[in-house]
Design a protein that fits this description.
With about 120 residues, the chain is mainly beta. The chain is about 0% helix and about 55% strand. It has no helices and eleven strands. The strands form two sheets. Strands 2, 4, 5, 6, 9, 10 and 11 form a seven-stranded mixed sheet that branches. A four-stranded antiparallel sheet has the order 1-3-8-7, with no helix packed on it. A hairpin with a 2-residue loop joins strand 9 (about 90-100) and strand 10. The chain is globular and about 40 Å long. The relative contact order is 0.33.
Amino acid sequence: QVQLVESGGGLVQPGGSLRLSCAASRSILSINTRAWYRQAPGKERELVASIITGSTTNYADSVKGRFTISRENAENMVYLQMNSLKPEDTAIYYCYFLAWSGAFWGQGTQVTVSS
């Protein structure tokens, strides 16, 4: 079974930046969608950003202009560059891949934005 492993989370000051990475434990063929979700305490998991076949990207309104999702197909990876971070961005961030072989979730990485 494929595992997705996130990295790059941590504590950052408001206005700061973080870059999250997600790597698959083994190669995944025919990935259709790569995405980042987040879940804050007491709230439901929400879609933050996605990138699909053809490199079309979509972003939640709350992060537009601040976050950028990108991918490295050969490395089975997805990234989330987060700039101008706000306390409201504090959450556990999860990566997600949808491929012909199934849907895969990472275990999450904590992002805390606090002064």
